[in-house]
Structures are given as C-alpha cells and as structure tokens.
UniProtKB/TrEMBL annotation:
Keywords from the named record: ANK repeat, Repeat
Record protein name field: Ankyrin repeat domain 61
Residue spans of the ANK repeats: 79-111, 171-203, 204-232, 281-313
SUPFAM superfamilies assigned: Ankyrin repeat
Species: Pelusios castaneus (West African mud turtle)
InterPro entries cross-referenced by the UniProt entry: Ankyrin_rpt, Ankyrin_rpt-contain_sf
C-alpha cells in the first residue's frame, strides 16, 4: 500500500479502493480486475464480461466495496459476491446469459444459502406509489424492469436450475413460495412451467395456493388454479383450506375496516372449493365469516350452500359466533337472515354458555327473545322450508322461481322479520 502517505490514514488520489493482491492487478495505478468485471456486469456489457472472464474464474467471488467507485479507508472490510449472483440480483440479462455460457454454476449458494434464482426472486421489482410524479416515472420504467426480471428467470430455468430448491435458512422456502412472499406474482407461472411443484409445502405446511388465498391475491390464485393446484387441500396442523384462509383474512378486523376485496373468495368458490369443509376445530368458512360479521362474505357463502347449522368441536354454531360481537348484533338485517336459515336454533356452546355479545345489558331484549325462540318447536313445514333454503342456496332462488308455483316459491323465501320483536 505504498500509495498511502506515511503517518496518515487518508488515501491519496491514487488509493486503491479494494483490498486486492492478485497479480492481475498489473502496475500501480491500474483499475483492479474485480472492479472492471463488477462494472461490466452492472452495465450489462456482455462483450466486456466475456473478455474479463479470460482472466477471472467465473465461479470465484468478486471483492468490492458497497460503492466500487468510492474511496474507502483500508480499515473497512470489503464485500464479496459471485458474478452470477450479482447479475441475477440486479437483473442484468445479457451478463447473466454470458456468465452461464462461460460455465457459471447456478446451483452455487452464498453464505446465506441463496442461489442465483433465490436472489433474483428476493430482489424482484416492486412498485410503491407515493405520488403522481413517482407514478409517472414508474410507469415509464416498470415494463422494462419487469421484462428484464422475467427474462432472467427464463434464462435460469432454461439452464435447468432447480426450481424446487429450498434456501438453507430457517424458513426453507422453495422458489415458488419465495416468489409469492417477494411479490413476484408474474414469476409464478414461469416457475410452474419449468417444473416447480405447484403443491409443494413450506415449513408451515402451506401450499402456494394457501399463501395466495390468505393474502387475497386474486391474480396468483387464478394462475395457480389454472395450472392445476389442489384447491381443497388442507393444512396438516390446523386443517384449513385456501377458502377458509381467504375468508379469515377478509373477515378480520383489518379486512373489514379496509373493505378487503372478496373476489379471491368468489374465485375459489366458482372453481370448486368445498364451502362446508371443517378444520381441526370443526370450523367451516361460515363460522369465520359470521364471527367477522361482513355481510357480503356471509351472503356469498350462503349462495354456495354454506351450512349455518354446522357445529365446532366446542358446540359453537355460526350464529353463536356472530352473536359474540356487539357490532354484529347491531346489524339486525343480517341477524334476521341467519335466524331464517338456522334449525335447530342453538344459542349455547357445549358448556351451556351464551355468546358474550348477548350478555351485554344493551341487548337484553334480543337475548330474551332469542332464548324464547330457541325453545319453540317448529312445524314440519317450517323445517322443510329452512332445509330447502340451505340446500339450494340463495343463488338458485331465481331458478326455483321459474320451476315452482309462485305461492310455493313465496312461502320458501318469505323471510320472517324477527327484528320487530326487539
């Protein structure tokens, strides 16, 4: 380091910003080979990359600072990265292709267990809109950036990269799960096309469809269903399906406040999701929907024959869970609808406890009326009417109207107004 002034820690104008001792550095004052190759890859200059690889092993790491063009004191340690990892991380299409043609091994992992494929997915381009000016710039560049990422992914897949290889980390995500968690939704179909196991599970037992549905990602959910994902597979520990996870998210407090889109739930139902599947605790989708109290979700599930008389392991009906919350009790129209579908009317759980919402003083009248109603023995005709409503669902109501005498149809869908009693 003869170019550092004696007695000073400050580099002179000829200071080398790398800790570098290879003979290929040449005479004092020349630019190190690692820096040249780094810059060539970042500029996507495949011609220069190929020329530099004649002097640099393609599968050996490059030593560099955070900013290769800045001057750093020699006391700061440099970083290292494999050329193929650098190209994949920054989506340098031409450089990536050149490195692979020169013998770069896409299976090599860094010290965190990431391959080039993992790094590409981890750094997949995302859009964060913070204002009109930013949006305008992103609109100009997004198409190119996305195209580069997709082409880099296709290049790696065409080279036979293991699409199901998991990271050597605590998460053990496969590439498909990593793509979803990184927001790389457009990478999903490419990975599946090149052999990724569509029903592979992560460390929580979730398939890609479970994850997409839980995040209400309609685009990815539709892609996975089209590609043949098992729509009704359950989580090994909790027993929940993709439909149940989507309903839980959309019915949560955050989902209700933000009016989360329910198109993902509708998509699952249209494509054959079993609406009455119960998890390990006996909960079906209608239980979680009623607990959340979102009318549009409950209505949608009822359209697809959700059974409001299913009980959990603890003897809780969907109506019991609905009556747990004050806000639900105030929605008299929805409460009235659930009462018209419920038989037998079960207000308590296995321990004989009433829902906590009914115990509030302000709902004393509702509690008294519902207790009286639960003790009334329905006629055979009323039982048949409730059963037909449940079996045919709301969405077939108009179809039945065309086939039944109008007086019979009116009796089926002439809902009682229980709200007048409280």
């Amino acid at each position: 380091m003869g170019n550092i002034a004696k007695g000073s820690n400050t580099p002179t104008t000829n200071s080398d910003p790398f800790i570098y001792s290879f003979s290929s550095c040449g005479q004092r004052g020349c630019k190190p080979l690692h820096a040249k190759l780094y810059e060539a890859i970042m500029k996507d200059d495949s011609t220069n990359v190929k020329a530099l690889l004649a002097h640099q092993p393609v599968n050996e790491p490059l030593i560099f600072w955070d900013n290769p063009t800045s001057r750093r004191p020699s006391s700061i340690l440099p970083q290292s990265i494999l050329p193929i990892h650098l190209a994949a991380k920054h989506r340098r299409e031409k450089s990536l292709r050149c490195l692979l043609e020169s013998g770069a091994d896409p299976k090599i992992r860094d010290n965190r267990g990431y391959t080039a494929l993992h790094l590409l997915l981890l750094h997949w381009p995302s859009v964060y809109i913070t204002g009109i000016d930013v949006l305008t710039r992103l609109q100009r560049n997004l198409a190119t950036t996305q195209s580069n990422a997709e082409e880099c992914l296709r290049i790696l897949c065409a080279r036979g990269v293991q699409t199901d290889s998991v990271m050597d980390s605590n998460c053990k995500h496969s590439s498909l799960h990593l793509a979803l968690r990184s927001g790389a939704s457009r990478a999903v179909s490419i990975l599946i096309e090149h052999g990724a196991n569509i029903d592979d599970r992560d460390e929580f037992g979730k398939t890609a469809l479970h994850t997409a549905a839980e995040h209400l990602n309609k685009e990815v959910t539709e892609t996975l269903i089209t590609c043949g994902a098992n729509i009704n597979c359950t989580l090994p520990i909790y027993g929940k399906t993709a439909l149940q996870l989507a309903v839980c998210t959309a019915s949560s407090k955050a989902g209700t406040v933000l009016a989360a889109d329910i198109d993902c739930i509708r998509l699952l139902l249209i494509n054959g999701a079993k609406v009455n599947t119960q998890d390990c605790e006996g909960r079906a989708a209608i239980h979680d929907a009623c607990l959340g109290g979102r009318k549009e979700i409950i209505d949608l599930l009822l359209d697809y024959h959700a059974d409001v008389n299913n009980l959990t392991r603890y003897g809780q009906s969907p109506l019991f869970l609905f009556l747990q919350h004050r806000s639900n009790l105030r929605c008299t129209s929805l409460l009235n609808k659930l009462l018209n579908f419920s038989y037998p009317l079960k207000l308590t759980n296995n321990q004989g406890d009433l829902p906590t919402g009914l115990l509030l003083q302000e709902f004393q009248m509702q509690k008294d009326f519902l207790i009286r109603l639960s003790k009334i023995m329905l006629s055979l005709q009323d039982i048949c009417i409730i059963t037909i409503r449940r079996l045919y669902g709301e969405k077939n109501k108009q179809c039945l109207k065309e086939q039944l005498p109008i007086t019979v149809w009116n009796s089926l869908y002439d809902y009682q107004d229980y709200s007048q009693h409280w």
